[in-house]
Amino acid sequence: MPPRRQPSARQERLGAELRKLREAAGLKATEAASLLGVNSVQMSQIESGVAGVSEERLRRLTAHYACTDEELVSALVVMATDRTRGWWEEYRGSLPNRFLDLSELEHHARFRWDVDFLHIPGLLQTEDYARALFSYVNPEFPEKEVDRWVEHRMRRQVIIERPDPIPYETVVHEAALRIKVGDRAQARAQLRRILEFSEADHVSVRVVPFDVNGFGGAGSAMVYAGGAVPALDTVVRDGPHGTVFIDAEAQLLRFRTLFRRVGSVALRAGRSREFIHQLAKEL
């Protein structure tokens, strides 16, 4: 199998997990390579996601690494052998790869948590809201380019709209609800769209109001996607240099804790719906 020119985040994650298991076993890359009968360059390509790995080779490695977590091994096998070409592949070459990586991550997620303070989370956005947002941030984009970005964002919502949706929880600050990314009518339609989503049993939308005291969590905006097993959870954050995928165990624990802390000061789901409904009436 020829090396990949640009591995996806999911392929990189598989390689990274194999590297973690090797390092936990106290083995060098050259020792692991000899187990498979490959050279150190090929082993490096497997651990970076540039090269694939078969189920037989993956199970051989994890056995030598003394990994007894069969659920994790099985999840890694699925990652290694899944040849699904999802809907996001239609956008390859026309959208940033990280957009496609996020779509793939969401497709395989067991659950999704969002925390946002300045914008409505993408999974809850209306088409008009997304268009106004992309157009403002990228004023040089031609209309067809903006159309492509908006279309992709709308299609991502399939994970909470399909017949077998994933559980979705989001905590949104009042600021995000009040900022008029578009005009007044679009803002009202956006709030109503959130209310529609929040009526679903698998969706929970909670609001942090302005009048909460002692709230210092405004820097905690994130996307948290639950993996097939907890060790494969992923946090996605937008930084000054682009979108970052975080999978270090200590960082995952930190963001799980942050989600709980932010959620602890948010209104309950029912009260949040009342709050959003009142905001919509005020517009």
What is the fold's blueprint, element by element?
Blueprint: H1 9-24, H2 29-36, H3 40-48, H4 55-64, H5 70-81, H6 97-108, E1 112-116, H7 127-137, H8 143-156, H9 158-161, E2 168-173, H10 174-178, H11 184-198, E3 203-208, E4 222-225, E5 234-239, E6 242-246, H12 249-264, H13 269-282
Parallel strand pairs: 1-2, 2-3
Antiparallel strand pairs: 1-4, 4-5, 5-6
Task: Explain this structure.
The protein is α/β, with parallel strands linked by helices and 283 residues long. It is 52% helix and 11% strand. It is built from 13 helices and six strands. The chain has helices at 9-24, 29-36, 40-48, 55-64, 70-81, 97-108, 127-137, 143-156, 158-161, 174-178, 184-198, 249-264, 269-282, and strands spanning 112-116, 168-173, 203-208, 222-225, 234-239, 242-246. Strands 3-2-1-4-5-6 form a six-stranded mixed beta sheet, sandwiched between helices. A hairpin with an 8-residue loop joins strand 4 (222-225) and strand 5 (234-239). Helix 11 packs antiparallel against helix 13 (269-282). The chain starts with 8 loop residues before the first helix and ends with a helix. The relative contact order is 0.12.
